[in-house]
Design goal:
single chain, 404 residues, alpha+beta, Arc Repressor Mutant, subunit A, 4 domains, five-stranded antiparallel beta sheet, four-stranded antiparallel beta sheet, 17 strands
């Protein structure tokens, strides 16, 4: 039987000479690649790894497929392996891309050893994990800080802690399911009257003003005998930094040529301050005689350096100060003034040290008054006078005078 053909039909010629035709089936079309689907597959796979994998618990491909199946995305193991292999190659080829995405995808063997050459180790069973942005210990530190901060509500505390814990793989999470008034630090809503301050909104406004270098008008409060926060003053300030110190959150701001520290939890209201033309008024700069003590690099405000000059957050222009204290006070001394102090053995008293530092006088005077049995001021004279005055005023309450 002979055969002739064209594009669409196949013609058969039988031995008796008769011809019959058969319609040729259409040629199969090459399947188009579903780029959108591929991207979603990669996104889902990475989400699974970021949610469930860790260095201690890397995931094999079957484990990844099982999680994908649970969310309604059935993918075969070859697709998952191929997708992760391509992603790892791209990230390895471009360190800038990996840094921009903040994505660290690891491929390891069953012993946890890193696999760098996927072709050489093609037959090795592979496990995958994504390095978390925050380590468990880092999240633990942050959640503990949130839990003991009194000036947010129980609800806000629980919300923040849960968000932090969501950054961890499930087996490391601690959801605080019963977080409430009886198992965490006292919160602002435990007070008899809720002051109704939107703390986070105030922080947003202050942060915006700091970044844009604009002045703000703040309404500052103080607590009365009924534990109600009431208006104390309204001030126009140039905000420069928000920082933690002594367990409290502070705004560091400038009025004219002097720095001030304001507790964030006592700022009742924040408003942008406008000039006569209706434009936001630009900030006053840090005073030059403060700037050299609290900035690093190119005008970068250092909260740590500021804390060391503003002891107990008593602000002011730093001055050169000399004090003497017992050698047993060195730990407390460094906690209060930081490591950038000069300490040497005293030539006046055995077991004492002589200390030199740069700080605002008022805070140091309060510190010396607090530790008056173990320390005293040497210079400047106004520091000596402030400490003397504090001690004499205090003695009056005990029926004593400086002469007794």
């Amino acid at each position: 039987m002979a055969e002739t053909s064209n594009n669409k039909t196949k013609n058969f010629i039988r031995q008796d000479g008769k011809v019959f035709s058969e319609e040729r089936p259409p040629m199969p079309q090459k399947k188009k690649s579903n780029q959108e689907g591929n991207r979603l597959n990669l996104l889902a796979i990475l989400k699974v790894l970021s949610s469930y994998s860790s260095k201690d618990r890397p995931m094999a491909v079957p484990d990844i497929c099982e999680k994908l199946q649970q969310i309604g995305l059935p993918l075969d193991p070859h697709t998952v392996t191929r997708t992760l292999g391509a992603a790892a190659s791209c990230l390895e080829a471009s360190s800038g891309l990996a840094s921009f995405l903040n994505l660290k995808l690891h491929i390891v063997n069953c012993y946890g050893d890193e696999i760098f050459d996927q072709e050489t180790d093609k037959k090795t069973r592979k496990y995958y994990y994504i390095e978390n942005a925050l380590k468990p210990a880092e999240i633990k530190m942050l959640t503990d800080a949130v839990e003991v901060y009194s000036y947010i509500t129980h609800e806000q505390t629980a919300s923040l802690i849960n968000k932090l814990n969501d950054l961890q793989v499930p087996e490391m999470r601690n959801k605080y399911p019963t977080l409430g008034k009886f198992n965490c630090a006292p919160k602002i809503d435990s007070l008899s009257v809720d002051p109704g301050i939107d703390l986070f909104d105030n922080i947003d406004k202050l942060n915006w003003a700091i970044n844009e270098k604009y002045k703000v008008r703040i309404t500052y409060g103080t607590y009365n005998i009924n534990k109600q926060l009431v208006k104390k003053s309204v001030k126009v300030v140039s905000p420069h930094q928000i920082m933690w110190s002594n367990g409290y959150y502070y705004l560091v701001a400038v009025i004219k040529d002097r720095p001030y520290s304001y507790r964030i939890d006592r700022i009742m209201k924040v408003e942008c301050y406008y000039d006569k033309e209706g434009n936001p008024s630009p900030c006053d700069p840090l005073p030059e005689n403060l700037k050299r003590y609290v900035t690093v690099g190119y005008d970068t405000f250092s909260p740590e350096l500021y804390r060391n000059t503003a002891v107990i957050m008593y602000s002011g222009i730093p001055e050169h100060i000399r004090i003497e204290c017992r050698e047993t006070m060195i730990n407390t001394l460094l906690d209060s003034f930081g490591l950038n102090v000069s300490i040497r053995r005293s030539v006046k008293r055995e077991g004492w040290v002589s200390v030199s530092l740069n700080a605002a006088v008022d805070g140091v005077a309060l510190w010396l008054t607090q530790y008056c049995a173990d320390s005293y001021a040497v210079s400047p004279q106004k520091l000596v006078d402030k400490v003397k005055k504090n001690l004499m005023e205090g003695l009056k309450y005990y029926g004593l005078s400086s002469r007794d």
